[in-house]
Amino acid sequence: MNSERPEERDAPEPAEPTAPDDRADGSPIGRRVLLGTLGLGALGVVAAPTLQRGLEAFLGGVSGKDPTGLTGLLPNGGGFRYYSVTASVPRKDDTNYRLTVDGMVDRPASYTLADLRALPQTRLVHDIQCVTGWRVPKTPFEGVRLSTLLDAAGVDPSAGAVRFTCFDGAYTESLTLDQARRSDVLVALKMQDKPVGHNHGGPVRLYVAPMYFYKSAKWLSGITVTRAVRPGYWEERGYDVDAWVGRSNGRDDAPTG
Question: What are the pLDDT digits (tens) for 72-81?
Fold first, then answer.
């Protein structure tokens, strides 16, 4: 999963997933094992702190090491989990990174990292919430408001959505145009006050503060203005298109700010 994957309730069985991208060998993990850990993740919504400690202790054993490599798949109340839907992801840096803005716009553009750094930067601090149960409180993100790039491109009045593509070659996401123009949606260059690292989706990722973290697509490479929302990678496999924290999967009302 590119970002953090939604829980499995009432969803079709996904295609064969791969291991998190921070595994040294990049080898795939079987579907049954991964789905089992994600099932534990759903339990983590209810009992994350205690259950997490017990599961990690079980997998890690007395030595504190995890020979299975599976603790990286478990929900964690104090840290991130890193996923990819591909076996490997190319690395990008100042020499070869480009972010394109195109589609239903008057002025298509291509941005280097230097271009993005030169634009006004916004810093946000919010909790990160994954629907599988883990949460990282008060996490700083910093970058360019997506609305800034959309305004610079000149959005067609008949457009209604924005589609995001990633340089892993597989992951996609979408937002309505109103959602994309929110002040708490960033094209993020920094995370936890450091440049976004490769495993976190760097050098540039999307950050959608009010939604579950799978909406914050990693390894962002393309922003395309479209007429209507197109479901993203996991949403094509049955997950929520609108993933407001608290509302998605039958929870409370969506935020309005």
Answer: 444 443 466 6
